[in-house]
Structure formats: structure tokens, C-alpha cells
């Protein structure tokens, strides 16, 4: 049997150890130091560069322990407090919305449009108006998400946000290396979130960063990330801080990873092109691609939707068994599932295709289940149009990482074709 093909596995450049060794040799084994500074400089240079030839931007970047920490601190910097509301894309991974609840605020979920699969600007504006009418105050922030790396309609989202004076926090955790109109995601809004978790475009084993508008706001984020200490000879605290700074060891991995970032991105794009080519003539399967020239997705994951009428071998047996282990289960502990089904799940043909690929030693995954369909958010307000729920019912993520070879893509697409009845 061939080695298992994973969705997106961390891939080292070979340079990581140099930076880590330097950290040990110079005794910087702490959550700050030369690697953190160097990594932040590399990140800032990368996101500030514009592909359209215009002058670079002047954003500052702060290295943090996780992308989730970056979302949390960005919300604090936008003054989000208990009782406030934050508008957030529903079609996302939970880390976009969970930090809103850490602050005692309420996430208000916004559904997606069909082109990018990200935040629908029309629903966004409807929600802004309706929340103001219902609560008498403005939502404190807007969080669009670059799901699977695909850029959102940031021009329209920024226009609405600016018109109502609401700051935008871009969740670019999956979209590092994605551009819109030649400009890096994460640099349009007031803040931009990056993640370097083990399965993202590049990894620091675990880590994240916040793109900030200027050095002053970056200093404020840094202050919150290091327990909010006042300058006295003793610990003096006048605000609640967090222990969210990136470690110098992790940043060393990040500096090594920056040397292969461009290779990773072109490889993901190449794999996407191959899927499109090899599945072009397969009826009932549609790859998700850039809606127009303005979008430049990193194709962190390659995704497809299955026509509900497409028949896949074994689909009548789908969901018969309770699944043990869970999505991303390798990354943490999961509770045992009580039931084989829930009231909102992918169609049987999607599950059957996932199982067929799994049996052939290929990891595939349904699209993320929208937050407004998650039991934990059953009471949160939501502005929906059915798009993200339909995508969840019909979509699948295919392997795209640096280890996926041309031969693997042919193997995967052959299994897909063979699975169709
Ligand atoms: C991974 C991810 C995050 C959080 O990043 P961590 O580094 O895992 O904390 C946030 N938002 C989205 C959409 C993500 O996929």
C-alpha cells in the first residue's frame, strides 16, 4: 500500500535547525529574541510587498503563540467588551469566532456569497443595519475569512466597513500568500491574522501573527501579549494581559520556513491546476477556483463540490457507523461521538467519496461546518442565505500540501473517477 497522502503536512526547508541552533547557542530559549525579531521582519516584508508594482505598505507584524491568540488580541485592540457584538463569517474554522466569546461578546454570523465562498457583502450590510436597529449600537468589528486561502470581496467589505466606521479584522490564517488586486490579505483591514499551525501554508509547529497598522498599535499588541506590564521595578498591572508571545525557538522554525514559502505557494497552485485539468470532464464534480483575475488564492486546500445527483459507490452505506476520531483529531483530544449522524451533515455521496479515498489511503475532509449550524452557537444571531450550508452539504477538501506529488494527484483523481457509479 502506498504511504498515506495527507491534506496538508508540514514540510521543512532544512534551514530551520540553523536558526534553532543559534537560539540555543546564544541562550535565547525564551518567548522573545533574535529569531522572533527576524521572523517578524521577514513577515512584514512579505505582506507589505505589492505585486502590482506600487510602493510597499508599512504594516508591522507581531509574532504570537497562535492564530487564535492573534484574533483574540485584535478584538481587544478593537475595544470589544462583554455585551458587544462582532460580525464574523459563518463559513470558517471555529478560531475566527471563539475568541469573541472569550471576551463575553456575541458573534453575529454572516453567510457567504457563491463566488469566493466568503463573507457576502450584501448580507454584511443588511446585518449592520439590522443590528443597529435591534440593539441601538454598532457592531464592534467585522471578520471576513480567507477560507481555504481564497480572498474575500475585500473592496466591497472595506467600503461598507468604512461607511459605518467599523474596523475590519481579516482572518488570513488560511490565506498567507493570497492576494487581492496584488495586495496581501491581512493588510486591507485594521488588523490581519496569520497562523503557522502545523497544517498551514508554513508552520512554526504552532504559532501565529498579527498584522498591525503601525508600530504604535504593534507595541500595544505586544504589551497585551506579554501580560500587560507597566514600567516599574516590580510587577505593576493596570490592565489584564495574556501570555501570547511567540517563542524564539518557534520563530526559528518560521525563519527557516520563510525560505520555502514561495515554493510552497507555487506547489499548492500547481496541484490545484492539476485537479482542475484532471477533473475537468468529470460530470458532477466542480473544482472551486479564483472567481476573477483580481483574486490570487494560495490554494491552501483544493476544494470541490459534488452535484447532489452524483452517485458514488457505497453511498447507501454512508453514515452507518459511528466515527471514532475526528477532523484534526491528531491535533487534540476529541469526545466520542454519541451518534453516527447529526441534523446537518455532508450529503451521502460526499461521505462515500471521503470513505473511498480513506480506504485508498488518501485523507479528504468535508468543507468546514458553518458556525451558525454548530450546536454551541445555536443562540447566536445569524444572517443567512443558505450558501455555506449548501457548500457544507456538497463540498470536499482534497490533499494539496508540499508532499503531494503529480503522481499522487493522478492517483487521487483516478480513485475519484473509479468511485463514481
Ligand atoms: C487555523 C485557523 C485559525 C487559528 O489558528 P491557530 O494558529 O490554529 O490558532 C484561525 N482562523 C482560521 C480560519 C483558521 O483556519
Summarize the structure.
It is built from 12 helices and 15 strands.
Name some characteristics of this structure.
421 residues; 12 helices; four-stranded mixed β-sheet; Aspartate Aminotransferase, domain 1; binds pyridoxal-5'-phosphate; Aspartate Aminotransferase, domain 2
Description:
With 421 residues, the chain is α/β, with parallel strands linked by helices. It is globular and about 70 Å long. A four-stranded mixed beta sheet has the order 1-9-8-5, sandwiched between helices. It has a four-stranded parallel beta sheet with strand order 4-2-3-14. The protein has a four-stranded antiparallel beta sheet with strand order 10-12-15-13. The protein folds into two domains: 16-260, Aspartate Aminotransferase, domain 2 (3-Layer(aba) Sandwich), CATH 3.40.640; 262-419, Aspartate Aminotransferase, domain 1 (Alpha-Beta Complex). It has twelve helices and 15 strands. 34% of the residues lie in helices and 13% in strands. Strand 6 (179-180) and strand 7 (183-184) form a beta hairpin. The chain starts with 15 loop residues before the first helix and ends with a helix. Pyridoxal-5'-phosphate is lined by residues 66-68, 92-93, 95-96, 145, 171, 173-174, 195, 197, 208.
Amino acid at each position: 500500500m502506498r504511504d498515506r497522502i495527507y491534506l496538508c503536512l508540514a514540510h521543512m526547508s532544512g534551514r530551520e535547525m540553523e536558526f534553532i541552533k543559534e537560539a540555543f547557542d546564544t541562550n535565547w530559549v525564551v518567548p522573545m529574541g533574535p529569531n522572533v525579531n527576524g521572523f517578524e521582519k521577514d513577515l512584514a516584508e512579505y505582506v507589505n510587498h505589492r505585486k502590482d508594482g506600487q510602493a510597499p505598505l508599512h504594516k508591522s507584524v507581531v509574532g504570537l503563540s497562535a492564530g487564535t491568540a492573534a484574533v483574540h488580541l485584535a478584538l481587544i485592540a478593537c475595544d470589544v467588551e462583554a455585551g458587544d457584538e462582532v460580525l464574523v463569517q459563518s463559513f470558517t474554522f471555529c478560531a475566527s469566532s471563539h475568541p469573541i466569546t472569550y471576551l463575553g461578546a456575541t458573534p453575529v454570523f454572516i453567510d457567504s456569497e457563491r463566488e469566493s465562498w466568503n463573507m457576502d457583502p450584501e448580507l454584511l450590510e443588511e446585518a449592520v443595519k439590522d443590528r443597529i436597529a435591534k440593539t441601538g449600537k454598532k457592531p464592534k468589528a467585522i471578520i471576513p475569512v480567507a477560507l481555504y486561502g481564497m480572498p474575500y470581496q475585500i473592496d466591497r467589505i472595506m467600503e461598507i466597513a468604512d461607511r459605518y466606521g467599523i474596523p475590519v479584522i481579516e482572518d488570513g490564517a488560511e490565506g498567507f500568500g493570497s492576494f487581492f488586486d496584488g495586495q496581501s490579505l491581512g493588510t486591507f483591514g485594521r488588523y490581519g491574522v496569520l497562523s503557522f499551525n502545523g497544517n498551514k501554508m508554513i508552520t512554526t509547529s504552532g504559532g501565529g501573527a498579527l498584522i498591525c497598522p503601525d508600530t504604535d498599535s504593534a507595541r500595544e499588541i505586544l504589551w497585551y501579549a506579554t501580560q500587560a506590564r507597566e514600567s516599574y521595578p516590580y510587577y505593576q498591572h493596570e490592565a489584564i494581559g495574556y501570555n501570547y508571545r511567540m517563542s524564539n525557538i518557534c520563530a526559528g522554525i518560521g525563519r527557516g520556513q520563510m525560505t520555502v514559502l514561495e515554493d510552497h505557494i507555487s506547489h499548492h497552485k500547481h496541484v490545484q491546476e492539476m485537479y482542475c485539468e484532471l477533473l475537468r470532464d468529470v460530470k458532477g464534480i466542480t473544482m472551486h477556483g479564483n472567481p476573477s483575475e483580481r483574486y490570487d488564492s494560495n490554494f491552501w486546500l483544493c476544494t470541490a463540490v459534488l452535484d447532489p445527483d452524483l452517485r458514488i459507490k457505497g453511498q447507501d452505506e454512508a453514515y452507518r457507523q459511528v466515527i471514532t476520531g475526528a477532523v484534526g483529531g491528531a491535533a487534540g483530544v476529541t469526545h466520542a461521538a454519541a451518534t453516527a449522524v447529526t441534523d446537518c451533515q455532508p450529503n451521502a455521496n460526499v461521505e462515500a467519496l471521503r470513505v473511498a479515498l480513506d480506504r485508498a489511503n488518501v485523507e479528504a475532509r468535508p468543507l468546514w461546518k458553518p458556525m451558525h449550524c454548530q450546536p454551541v452557537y445555536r443562540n447566536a444571531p445569524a444572517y443567512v442565505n443558505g450558501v455555506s450550508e449548501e457548500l457544507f452539504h456538497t463540498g470536499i477538501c482534497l490533499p494539496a500540501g508540499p508532499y503531494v506529488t503529480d503522481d499522487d494527484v493522478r492517483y487521487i483523481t483516478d480513485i475519484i473517477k473509479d468511485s463514481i457509479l
